[in-house]
Amino acid sequence: MTDLPLHGAMPEARPARSILDLDPRTRARNRAEARFRAYGLGALLVGLFFLVLLLGSILLNGLSAFTQTRIQLPVELLESELDPQGTRDPAVIGETSSLGYGDLIEAAMVQAVAAAGVPTAIEPGDLEDILSPGAGAQIREAVLRDPSLIGQTVTFDLLASSRVDGYVKGRVTRESLANDRNLRPEHLDIVDAMREAGTIERGFNADFITGADASERRPEEAGMGVAMIGSLYTMLVVLALSLPIGVAASIYLEEFAPKNRFTDLIEVNIANLAAVPSIVYGILGLAVFIQFMGLPQSAPLVGGLVLTLLTLPTIIIATRASLKAVPPSIRDAALGVGASKMQSVFHHVLPLAIPGIMTGTIIGMAHALGETAPLLLIGMVGFVASNYPNGALDGFTSPNSAMPAQIYEWAKRADPAFYERAWGGIVILLVFLLLMNLAAVLVRRRFERRW
Amino acid sequence: MPLGWLLLLVLLIAAAGYVMGRRRALSGAGGDTRAMHSLPGAYGWNVAMAVLIPSLLLMAAWTAVAPSVIDRMVAPMVADQGDPALVMSDVRRVARGLVILDEGFDTIAAEGLRDRLASVGVAVGQDVSESTLAAAERYDILAARSSWLLTALTLAIAGGAAAWALRRTTPDLRARNEVERGIQGLLIAAALVAIATTIGIVLALIFNTIKFFQLYPATDFFFGLTWSPSFGGGSELGILPLIWGTLYISFISLLVAVPLGLLSAVYLSEYASHRVRAWAKPMLEVLAGIPSIVYGLFALLTVGPALLAVFGDGGLGWMDGGTAVMTAGLVMGIMLIPFVSSLSDDIINAVPQAMRDGSLGLGATPSETIRQVVLPAALPGIAGAVLLAASRSIGETMIVVLGAGAAAKLSLNPFEAMTTITAKIVSQLTGDQDFSSPEALVAFALGMTLFVVTLCLNILALWIVRRYREQYE
Predict the structure, then answer these.
(1) Domain count for chain A
(2) Going edge to edge, which strands form the sheet with A67-76?
(3) Which of residues 390-449 of A touch B (CB under 8 A)?
(4) What pLDDT digit, counting tens, does each position of A417-449 carry?
(5) Cβ neighbours of B283 in A, within 8 Å
(6) ipTM for the complex shown
C-alpha cells in the first residue's frame, strides 16, 4: 500500500475544511433541532404556567373568605322594647321579631358614631347599613338564649355588611360605592374612624367553614358547612356502594369471566361508560331515581347513587389493573395446595391487590367529590343547603347540596361579595381533594408491592 | 314496618340461619369435620345466603317499583286538578303531614288544612281540595298496605328459605360449591350493573325524547335555527345554534390543548431528563385532577375579565362581555392539556425503540426522528387521543355554563357569547319537577343527542387506539 493516489492527482476536492466546522445545512438542521426542543419546553412551561395562574388566582381571591370584618357594638337592650311586662318568658320575648331590634341597633350605632367622634351627614336610620342585615337576628338569638341580658348594655360582636367587609379587604373603594345603593362613601369615614378605635376588626371566619348558605342579600353570612355535610353523606353512599360493586365486578371480569361475546360486551360497556359525559348521569338519575322510583329530590342519597354509577368505571378499571398485577404464581400456589378458585381469589389474590384497589377508590371518590353537573339536575343546588339535617340518618334524605354545587350557586349570584365566597369554597374543596390524593399516594408508597 | 327494621330482622334471621346451619351439619357428622364435605362455616353461609339473596332482592325491587305503582293507582282521583306531577307531590305531602298532625282522615277537613300543615313544617303547593284529601287518604291506605305486604312477604320468604336450606343441610351437602356458586352469581350481578347503567341511560333518554317529539316536531328540533324557550308556550327549540356553539367551543379548546399537550408529551418522553420528568409530569396532571367547577370559576372571574381587558371596549373592541366562546374554549383547552399529553405520552412510548434507533443511526437529529418517524408511527393513536379529548370537551358542562354565556347564537365571532348543549340541559332541567312541557322535555332530546355524539366519538377513538396498540405488540 502506498500513500500516493493511483491515478496521479487527487480528484477535484471539495474546498478544504475541518470536520469540526459545520456546513450550513448541518447548522440549519441543528437550529431546527434547538427550535423544536424549545417548542416542547415552551409548551410544557405554558402548561405549568396555567397551573400556577390557576392556583394563584384561587389563593389570591379565596383566602380572604376565611377572614371576616366584625364590629364590636355595645347595645342597650331596653326592657321597654323587648319585654315591657318584665316576664322574662322566652315565649313573650320571642314575639319581637328580628326587625323589632332595629331601633335598638340604630340607637347603638348613633352612640358608637358619636364615640368615634366623626361628624356625619348620614341619617341615623341609615347608619345600620354598616352592619349586616342579619345583625338583628344575631342579637335576638342571644337574648332568647339568655333573657337575663334584658335591661343591660351588652357588647355584641356583630357582622359587618358585605360592602364594609369588602372595603376592609380592599375590594370596595369609595369610587365603586358612588353608584351603590347599599352603602354610601360617607359610611366609610365612620368605618375608618371605628377601625382606628379598634371597634371594627377583621378576624378569622369560622362561620364560613361551619355555616349554612345565606340569602342573596347577606353574603357575609354564607358558609360552606351544610354543603360539606351534604358532600360527606353523598360520599358515604358512594363509598358504601361503589367499592363492593366495583371490586366484585372486577373480580368477576378479571378472574372468572370466560372469554366470550358477553364478557366483551361488558368490557366495551365499561370503557364507554368511563367516557360518557357526567351530565348524562344526571339525566339518568333524574329520570330513573326521581321520576320512576320516586326517591326524594335534592337528597344526598340520590346524589350518592348517581355518583356511584359515575365512579364505578374508574374503580373497576383501577381494581382490574391491580388484580392483574398480582402474579399468577400466587394463584397457582393456592390452587396447588387444594384451595378452590374462589378461595384462591378471596384469600390470596384480593388481599394482595388491596393497596391498588384503595388507591383507585380514593382517586375515584376525589373525582366524584368535584362533580357538579349531575348534582344540579337532581336538585342538589346550592340554595337548598340552608339547614343542617335533623339527625344522623336524616342526612341521607333531607334536601341538601354539595360543595361544588354550592360554589356554583355563589358564582351565579349577582353580588360580587359572593365571588369571594366561591373562591374560598374552592380552597376548601381543593384541600379535601389534596388530602385524598395525598392519602392515595401514601397508600401506594407504603403498601404497594412490586413483583 | 319501616325498611330499616325489616332489614335488621332479615339480617338477624340470616345470622340465626348461619349458626343453626353450621350446628346442624356438625351434629349430623357427630362433630367430626372430616366426615363433612365442606368446612363447617360453608354450611352456615349456605343457609345465610339462601335467606339474604331472595329477601334483599325482593325488598330492593319493591322499594323501586312500589311508589310509582301507588302513584298510578291514586293519580286518576286527582286527574282534574292540573299538572299530575305537582298534584301528586301535594297528595304525598298531605298524607305525610297528617301523620305529623296525628289526625285521622275522618275528622279532618280540607278547609284551612294548608295553613295547618304549613304550621308543622309541611309546605303544600296549592290549597287542599276535597279530592286531594281523598286521594291522600287512599294514598295513605295503599302505602300502609304496601308496607305490610312487603313485610309479610319478606319475612315469609326469609323464613321459608331458612327452613328449606336447613332441611337440606346434611354433612354430605356440597355446601362450599353451593356457596361459591352463589358468590359467583353476586359477582356477575355486580358486573351487570355496568350494563344496567347503560340500559338505564338509554331508556331514560329514549322515553322522554319520544314524549318530547310527541309535543314538538322532530324536524323543527333538528333543523331549527332559533333557540328561544319560553315556559309560557310558543317556544322555538332548534338545536342547530346549540350544536354550533358546542362545536365552536370544543374546536377552540382543541386548538389550545392539542399542540400544547402533544408538544409537552414529546418533550417529556423524548428530551426531558429523569428529574424533570419526575417533577413536571405529576405537576401537569394536577391540572387534570382539578374539578371542572374550579375551571368554570376561573373562566368567569379570571380569564373572562382578562380577555375583556384586551379585546373589549378598552382594547380592540371585539368583545362585549367576559363570557364568550373564547373564554370557555381557552379554559377548556387548559383543562384538556394533561388529558391529551398523558394519552399521547403513552402512545409515543409505545412506538418501538428500534424505529428511533434506526432513524438516529442514519444520522437524523432527534427532532427529525420525532417528526418523521415517531409521530407518523404514533399518528393513529394520537388521532384517537384527539377524538377522546373532543368527546370530553363536547360533554363538559360547568366551564361552559359559567364561561360561555347563555345566549344561543349562530355567529362566527369567537368573542361573542354562545351556548352549548350541556349548558342548556342544565338550564332547562335544574330545579324543575314538572316533566310535561316541551321546554323541560327538550333537555332529554338534547341529552340524547349529546349521548349519541359522544358515544360515536368514543367508540371510534377506542377502536383506533386499540387497533394501533395491537400493531406494535
Answers:
(1) 2
(2) A153-159, A67-76, A200-204
(3) 393, 404, 407-408, 411-412, 419, 422-423, 426, 429-430, 433, 437
(4) 888 889 999 999 999 999 999 998 888 888 877
(5) 48, 51
(6) 0.88
